[in-house]
Amino acid sequence: MKFLITLMMLMSSFASMAHDGHKDSLEISNVWARETLGRTMSAAAYLTIKNIGHHDDHLVSVSSKIAAVTEIHLSKMENNMMMMAPVDGGLPLPKKKILRLKPQSYHIMMMRLTKPLAKGDVFPVTLTFKKAGDVEIFVEVRGIDGKK
Ligand SMILES: [Cu+2]
């Protein structure tokens, strides 16, 4: 009986993996993060989310197991310095609209990483949407120049 429950849990996790990057209402692409250099123990992840559903949605929160803290951040120039801060309340994603998390703009911030990120690594991040619920995505780590 115990074995059966474990097997069912496994199967349900495979089912959610099959949905990677694509819940019916969302099209997720260009998912990547920059490798970390030296002793840097924080990293940003980027992606493009298109709402192809019939309803407005909202990216409520993000989480990952590779960092102690994972937050939605916004970078912006202030007094000629690049500053970043957590975004309160998440990000709206109206139907037919595209949300781009990209360098010098919105990003997923991971702080106090459990280990450095090396080019070629892949790690999961969970996005939580108001309508679409939890969506697991797999982030590809690229070089410091943003190239594969
Ligand atoms: Cu940040």
UniProtKB/TrEMBL annotation:
The keyword Signal applies. Keywords: Signal. The keyword Signal applies. Residues 1-18 form the signal peptide. InterPro entries: LpqE-like, Lxx211020-like, PCuAC_sf. It comes from the Bacteria. Gene3D superfamilies: PCu(A)C copper chaperone. This is Copper chaperone PCu(A)C.
